[in-house]
């Protein structure tokens, strides 16, 4: 029997996290970019001993996902799973200059900074923007070991992150704070509990509550449809904020060069970002089947304070779901401004997304994508949009893809409502 992660790659469920490479003792896995620029593991069967460790570590193995979806289907309110036995807070960094650099309220950075300055963690495992051109990866993993680094590498990276190299640098006896999408946090929690190489390493986990993620071509498509120059290396902040914003919803897409030249700084409703994101252009196939919105396995989960709060504070606020009492104390002491939220406020917050991901999870595994259930839930539309955008952009370029996707999105909408 083959016990490798090849099945995850064949099922197109790989989220590019690199955990399989991290656990392979025989150096049989290489992370390689596929035809759509996604970073998939490739196994060297000359070296592979079929030990099964990579599959055990993989958070996106299809039977594991299906089992989660089955469990959810037996619950009364699957969209609320992940909120049980937790405390909920609205929080923001009082330092406006730092908060404006962050994605929402800067809560993640403030908590990590507090833990680091108290000597409670030795470093932070998170993400960073990369300099590059069209076709390159725009974000990567990093291990920050100074307060300055923790405070500098903020905001959201809308691209899967390969953590294999960073995880190989962790030292026994040390404690780290790690951010990641819920799938990666599920994988890390599993490693901490079951892999003996992680026995003497402590990781406090922070899930970035996640609707879905997109591959690196999403950024390329955005820059091309906005006709940006690709002559010099650039970086992108897809969640740029400033003092001119009317509300937190109106963040900008900021693309800049090394010498500080602005290539674009456009409201996300005007750049095309919102439409491309909302309709799952370039979405990872794995995200279409993902049954976790709330990051149920994490010590702490953090999201944007959408809804009424976006208009109340244009600089952005974070919503936190805290499941660990030790972290709760650190949160109180971190210096964040906060308000406690109650169950009534939280139970149906951003409801459409957890309903799509958690309540409808089982139908994605048990019914065809074009079944009535999957059409009505939007799965079929997202499935087609994700596949077509990747295929078209690769074969016919940005301009034709832009117009064809308008037609495809309309057709799939019609199929959704009939
Ligand atoms: C792909 C993705 C989809 C999301 N979807 C939603 C959504 O649908 N609804 C919602 O409310 N919120 C969503 N979020 C969460 C939201 O964007 C913020 O991450 C969250 O509110 C924390 O904001 P903050 O200001 O407290 O964090 P910050 O203080 O800005 O700190 C964020 C930290 O997370 C790290 N980080 C960023 N992206 C990644 C990544 N991909 N992997 C690992 N580390 C990372 C940064 O390096 C930084 O240290 C999503 C986030 C991501 C990455
Ligand atoms: S089965 Fe074992 S040896 Fe083979 S790739 Fe996976 S972890 Fe490495
Ligand atoms: S999801 Fe992660 S662990 Fe699974 S195959 Fe992909 S890179 Fe490896
Ligand atoms: S939607 Fe799920 S699989 Fe995709 S990045 Fe988020 S947690 Fe991971």
Q: How many individual domains?
A: 3
Major sheet details: 8 strands, mixed
**Overall pLDDT score:** 97
Would you state the CATH class of the largest domain? Answer: Alpha Beta
Number of helices: 20
Radius of gyration of CA atoms, rounded to a whole number: 21 Å
**Ions and ligands:** flavin-adenine dinucleotide, iron/sulfur cluster
Structural class: alpha+beta
- Poorly predicted parts: none
CATH topology of the largest domain: Aspartate Aminotransferase, domain 2
Total DSSP E strands: 13
Distance between the termini: 45 Å
Shape: globular
Biggest sheet, spatial arrangement of strands: 5-4-6-7-11-12-3-13
Helix content: 25-40%
- In CATH, the architecture of the largest domain is 3-Layer(aba) Sandwich
Task: Tell me the β content.
Answer: 15-25%
Description:
- The chain is of the alpha+beta class and 418 residues long.
- It has three domains: 6-77, 2-Layer Sandwich (Alpha-Beta Plaits), CATH 3.30.70; 79-214 and 282-358, Aspartate Aminotransferase, domain 2, CATH 3.40.640; 367-418, no CATH class.
- Helix content is 40%, strand content 18%.
- It is built from 20 helices and 13 strands.
- The chain has helices spanning 6-10, 19-23, 53-57, 62-73, 96-101, 107-117, 147-152, 164-167, 182-194, 217-225, 268-271, 273-278, 285-288, 308-312, 325-333, 343-346, 352-359, 361-366, 372-376, 379-417, and strands at residues 29-33, 39-43, 87-92, 123-129, 139-144, 175-180, 202-208, 234-240, 252-257, 262-267, 300-304, 318-322, 337-341.
- The strands form three sheets. An eight-stranded mixed β-sheet has the order 5-4-6-7-11-12-3-13, with helices on both faces. Strands 8-9-10 form a three-stranded antiparallel β-sheet.
- A hairpin with a 5-residue loop joins strand 1 and strand 2.
- Helix 10 crosses helix 20.
- The longest helix has 39 residues, at 379-417.
- The protein is globular, with a radius of gyration of 21 Å.
- The N and C termini lie far apart (45 Å).
- The structure holds flavin-adenine dinucleotide and iron/sulfur cluster (3 copies).
């Amino acid at each position: 029997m083959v016990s490798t992660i090849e099945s995850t790659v064949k099922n197109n469920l790989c989220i590019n996290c690199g955990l399989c490479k991290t656990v392979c003792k025989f150096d049989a896995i290489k992370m390689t970019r596929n035809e759509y620029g996604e970073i998939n593991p490739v196994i060297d069967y000359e070296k592979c001993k079929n030990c099964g460790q990579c599959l055990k570590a993989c958070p996106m193995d299809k039977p594991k996902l299906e089992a989660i979806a089955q469990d959810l289907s037996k619950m009364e309110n699957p969209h609320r799973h992940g909120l049980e036995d937790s405390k909920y807070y609205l929080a923001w960094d009082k330092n406006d200059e730092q908060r404006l650099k962050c994605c929402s309220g800067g809560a993640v950075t403030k908590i990590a900074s507090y833990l680091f300055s108290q000597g409670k963690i030795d470093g932070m495992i998170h993400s960073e923007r990369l300099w590059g051109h069209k076709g390159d990866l725009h974000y990567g993993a990093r291990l920050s070991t100074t307060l300055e680094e923790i405070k500098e590498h903020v905001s959201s990276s809308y691209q899967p992150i390969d953590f294999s190299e960073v995880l190989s640098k962790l030292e026994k006896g040390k404690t780290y704070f790690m951010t990641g999408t819920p799938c990666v946090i599920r994988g890390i929690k599993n490693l901490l509990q079951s892999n003996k190489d992680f026995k003497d390493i402590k990781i406090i986990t922070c899930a970035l509550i996640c609707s879905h993620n997109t591959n690196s071509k999403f950024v390329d498509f955005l820059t091309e449809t906005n006709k940006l120059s690709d002559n010099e290396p650039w970086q992108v902040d897809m969640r740029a904020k400033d003092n001119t914003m009317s509300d937190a919803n109106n963040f900008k897409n900021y693309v800049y060069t090394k010498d500080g030249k602005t290539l674009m700084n456009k409201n996300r409703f005007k750049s095309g970002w919102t439409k491309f994101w909302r309709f799952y252009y370039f979405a990872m196939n794995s995200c279409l089947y993902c049954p976790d919105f709330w990051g149920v396995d994490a010590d702490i989960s953090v999201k944007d304070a959408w809804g009424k709060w976006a208009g109340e504070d244009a600089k952005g606020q974070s919503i936190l779901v805290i499941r660990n009492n030790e972290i709760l104390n650190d949160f109180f002491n971190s210096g964040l401004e906060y308000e406690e939220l109650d169950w009534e406020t939280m139970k149906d917050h951003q409801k459409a997304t957890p309903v799509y991901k958690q309540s409808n999870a089982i139908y994605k595994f048990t019914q065809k994508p074009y079944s009535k259930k999957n059409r009505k839930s939007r799965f079929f539309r997202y499935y087609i949009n994700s596949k077509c955008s990747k295929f078209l952009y690769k074969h016919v370029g940005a301009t034709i893809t832009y117009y064809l996707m308008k037609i495809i999105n309309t057709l799939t909408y019609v199929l959704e409502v009939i």
